C-alpha cells in the first residue's frame, strides 16, 4: 500500500524509498569488507544486535520519502523532527529534508480540517496538555458549526483580499491557520522515521498526529520489516 487516507481530507503517500533490511546489514558489515546477497537468520540477528546496542548508523543508509497532506497543527509538530534530527542522531548534518507548498506562490483552494460533532475532545483530568475523553455530542455539534462559520468568514475575507489585488502572501493571514491543510515532502532515514514513530505512536501523543504515525508505520513496515520492528522496540523515545 503506497497511500493511506488520514483524518477527513488528509493522506500519507509513499513517493520513493531506498534500501531494505539488507541495506542495514551490508552497511554494518562493510567495516569487515563483507556483504550479504540475501537476508539470512544471521543477518536478522545482526539487525537485532545493532538496534539493541544503539549502533544506529547502519539504519541511516536506508531512506524513505513521503508526500503528506495534513492540517497545520500536525505539520508544525512534525517539523520538530527535522530540527532535532542532527542532535539525536549524533551527526553534524540533519538526515531529513522537508519541502512544503507555499501560499506565497500558489493560490490553490484552501482546505480545512473540521472535526465532526463526535470528534471533539475535552481537557485531560491529570495533565496540563493533551486531551481527554470525547465531549458530549451536543457540545461537539455546537463547536463544529462554530468552526465552520469561523473558517468560512476567513475564507471570504481571503478571497476578497485577493480580488482587491492584495498579494497572496499577505491575503493568507485571513485563513484559519491551524486547521488549514498543507502539503509537503518528508525525506528521512530509517532511523529518523523510527524515532518519529516511537514518539508519535505513544498513547499520550496528540490523536491527529498519531493517526498519521499509524499510516507511516503501515506503509514503512513491509519495506523494512525486521529493522522497523527492532527500532520500535529499542529506539530512544
From TrEMBL:
Its EC number is 2.1.1.148. It holds the Pfam family Thy1. GO terms for biological process: dTMP biosynthetic process; methylation. Keywords: Methyltransferase, Transferase. SUPFAM superfamilies: Thymidylate synthase-complementing protein Thy1 (SSF69796). CDD domains: ThyX. It comes from the Bacteria. GO terms for molecular function: flavin adenine dinucleotide binding; NADPH binding; thymidylate synthase (FAD) activity; thymidylate synthase activity. Transmembrane segments: none annotated. This is FAD-dependent thymidylate synthase. It comes from Cohnella zeiphila. The gene is thyX.
Amino acid at each position: 500500500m503506497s497511500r493511506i487516507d488520514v483524518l477527513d481530507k488528509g493522506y500519507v503517500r509513499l513517493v520513493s524509498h531506498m534500501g531494505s533490511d539488507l541495506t542495514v546489514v551490508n552497511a554494518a558489515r562493510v567495516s569487515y569488507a563483507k556483504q550479504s546477497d540475501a537476508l539470512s537468520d544471521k543477518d536478522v540477528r545482526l539487525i537485532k544486535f545493532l538496534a539493541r546496542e544503539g549502533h544506529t548508523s547502519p539504519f541511516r543508509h536506508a531512506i524513505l520519502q513521503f508526500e503528506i497532506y495534513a492540517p497545520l497543527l500536525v505539520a508544525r509538530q512534525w517539523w520538530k523532527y527535522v530540527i532535532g534530527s542532527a542532535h539525536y542522531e549524533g551527526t553534524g548534518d540533519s538526515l531529513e529534508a522537508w519541502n512544503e507548498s507555499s501560499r506565497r506562490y500558489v493560490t490553490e483552494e484552501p482546505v480545512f480540517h473540521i472535526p465532526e460533532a463526535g470528534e471533539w475532545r475535552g481537557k485531560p483530568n491529570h495533565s496540563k496538555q493533551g486531551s481527554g475523553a470525547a465531549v458530549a455530542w451536543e457540545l461537539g455539534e455546537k463547536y463544529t458549526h462554530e468552526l465552520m462559520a469561523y473558517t468560512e468568514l476567513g475564507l471570504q475575507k481571503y478571497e476578497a483580499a485577493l480580488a482587491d489585488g492584495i498579494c497572496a502572501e499577505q491575503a493568507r493571514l485571513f485563513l484559519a491557520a491551524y486547521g488549514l491543510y498543507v502539503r509537503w515532502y518528508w525525506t528521512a532515514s530509517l532511523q529518523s522515521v523510527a524515532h518519529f514513530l516511537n514518539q508519535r505512536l505513544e498513547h499520550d501523543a496528540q490523536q491527529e498526529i498519531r493517526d498519521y504515525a499509524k499510516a507511516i508505520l503501515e506503509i514503512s513496515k513491509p519495506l523494512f520489516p525486521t529493522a522497523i520492528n527492532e527500532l520500535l522496540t529499542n529506539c530512544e523515545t
